[in-house]
Write a sequence for this structure.
């Protein structure tokens, strides 16, 4: 539920990946975690949503993810365009949910947190991005 680059450690020498910071961990849809991960490309302190990955980068990322998943499960590595498109739509729908979740979280933090951070400003940024993305994302449809 908080998969951002700073919580992923890649050990090039050993060729493995470790995840850290399980403060908000819990069962969730994989598309939520990926959508949240893409949202986090924009940063937290100096948020810049122009850094949100474009459709091409998302497609490459999602294809690689699906290939690795299928290989791990023993299903081979062939991934169809439709599988990538379905996951792309799900990820971007859950990216909306991520904006809403972190916007609400920031409102609560603005009231109760003692940390020096503009939580109210962050909530506004997340809600603004939610409403900006919503028409485009809700218009996405899986091709027949």
């Amino acid at each position: 539920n908080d998969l951002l680059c700073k919580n992923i450690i890649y050990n090039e020498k050993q060729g493995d990946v470790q995840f850290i910071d399980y403060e908000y961990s819990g069962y969730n849809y994989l598309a939520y975690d990926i959508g949240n991960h893409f949202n986090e490309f924009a940063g937290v302190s100096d948020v810049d949503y122009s850094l949100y990955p474009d459709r091409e980068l998302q497609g490459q990322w999602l294809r690689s993810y699906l290939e690795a998943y299928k290989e791990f499960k023993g299903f081979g590595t062939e991934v169809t365009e439709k599988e990538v498109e379905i996951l792309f739509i799900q990820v971007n729908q859950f990216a909306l949910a991520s904006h809403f979740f972190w916007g609400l979280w920031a409102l609560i933090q603005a009231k109760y947190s003692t940390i020096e951070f503009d939580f109210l400003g962050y909530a506004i940024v997340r809600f603004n991005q939610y409403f900006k993305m919503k028409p485009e994302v809700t218009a996405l449809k899986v091709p027949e």
Remarks:
- The two ends are 31 Å apart (CA to CA).
- The mean pLDDT is 91.
